[in-house]
Amino acid sequence: MRVLILGAPPSDAEAWAGVNWSVVPYSSDWLSEADVVVLPAYIEHQPRAALQAITAGVPVVASSACGLTQLPGVQEVEAGDLHAIERAVTQVLTSVRAQA
Known about the structure:
The chain is an alpha/beta fold. It has two domains: 1-33, no CATH class; 35-100, no CATH class. It is built from two helices and five strands, in the order βββαββα. The strands form two sheets. A three-stranded parallel β-sheet has the order 3-4-5, sandwiched between helices. It has a two-stranded parallel ribbon with strand order 1-2. The two termini are 15 Å apart. The model has no long low-confidence stretch (mean pLDDT 93).
């Protein structure tokens, strides 16, 4: 599995040790490589990347702070609930792999 981070790199790269990650610009073709888009924001007023994913039919896991409640393909979790994010991402990836 590979994690693509849109925009700026993580402020604490050591926290990502052991994870295959790379930073890509928003202008790249990142969406064509995505099986799931995760937006675990505490505050989000412009979830453009998540909206692009929804439009493209890519599943989204987003916190309730993102304002994407009840949109198709979105699994909502509470902001900061890492276990809920993990469960939702695992569920989405299991479903994606089963369909492949």
